[in-house]
Amino acid sequence: MRLIALTAFAAFALDQISKYLVIHVMELWRIRSVDVLPPLLNFRYGENRGINFGLFGDGSDTSRWILIGLAVVICAGVLFWARRAPLGTVAQIGAGLLVGGAMANVLDRLIYGYVLDFLNMSCCGINNPFVFNVADIFIFAGAIALVFFAPDEKKSAEKGQ
Question: Phi and psi (nearest 5°) for 37?
């Protein structure tokens, strides 16, 4: 659990620091757009009131609190499961990334009422209109790590029979 906690803290801190630097120090909230390595990497200010790609983002206070509650319940579930399952190092890091990223987005919703997004990537003549943040990368990477590196309880049970 120590590795999960350290990874979660690091993911949380990196996301919040990146948002503070890009959105507040660079004043992306005011200038709205910075081409960093166009078209591959751009900073575009975004306020995500929903989940991925703005789904369920009607902007109501009710949906905000539902999304906060859902994220907290999922994080608690992952931590409960991780405590009971014999996770290897990569799976523990994955769990920490997922929890840290999700809690960073929860903090945004508590402070701003929405999740701050600023990363935009396009390539090969395709203009991607969506923005995301560092926490979203951690959530995705953590989920992938858990899918591929968490123990399969069904296979373990079959081997024991």
Answer: -135, 70
From the candidates 35, 61, 117, 152, which is the catalytic residue? 117
- Taking phi first (over 0 means left), then psi (-120 to 50 degrees means alpha), and beta for anything else, what does residue 125 get? left
Contact 103, 8 (CB under 8 A): yes
Considering 35, 58, 136, 152, which one is annotated as catalytic?
Answer: 136
> What is the rounded CA–CA span in Å between residue 116 and residue 71?
16
Question: Which range of residues forms the domain containing residue 18?
Answer: 2-132+142-160
Residue 37 counted as domain residue: yes
Active site residue 152: no
In a domain, 60, yes or no: yes
Q: How many structural domains are present in the chain?
A: 1
What does the pLDDT look like over 117-144, one tens digit per residue?
999 999 988 999 999 999 999 999 999 9
Torsion over CA: 4, 7, 13, 16 (sign): negative
pTM: 0.92
Domain contains 137: no
Task: Answer whether residue 106 is part of any domain.
Answer: yes
Is 108 assigned a catalytic role?
no
